[in-house]
Amino acid sequence: MKKTGITSSAWPTRSRLPLMFAALAITLAPVAMPHAGHAQGIVRGAQEGSYEGNRVAGPVGGVVGGAIGAGVGGAMGAVEGVLGLPEPHWHHRCHGYSDGYGRFHCYRYY
Question: What is the pTM for the complete model shown?
Fold first, then answer.
């Protein structure tokens, strides 16, 4: 019986494909991050809650309304952002146009 010994071995060759995917993911990650304009739910909710609370119940109502509005606004912003829900808009039951003053004019009803 012959005995053969291995005198050298080569390192296993690795594919560059996982490295390329990792580099691509790192490169495109900043594109997927939300922008500052998407974080308006908390601020707007706090502003509207504070305004309504102050109008109804005075300064104490303004503080409480601001805190509740910030919580609800942040939650709604997160849900809409995660699920990709569109902003609610007023839909007219007619065909028409908006003039320069923001008023909607119907020219045909359906």
Answer: 0.41
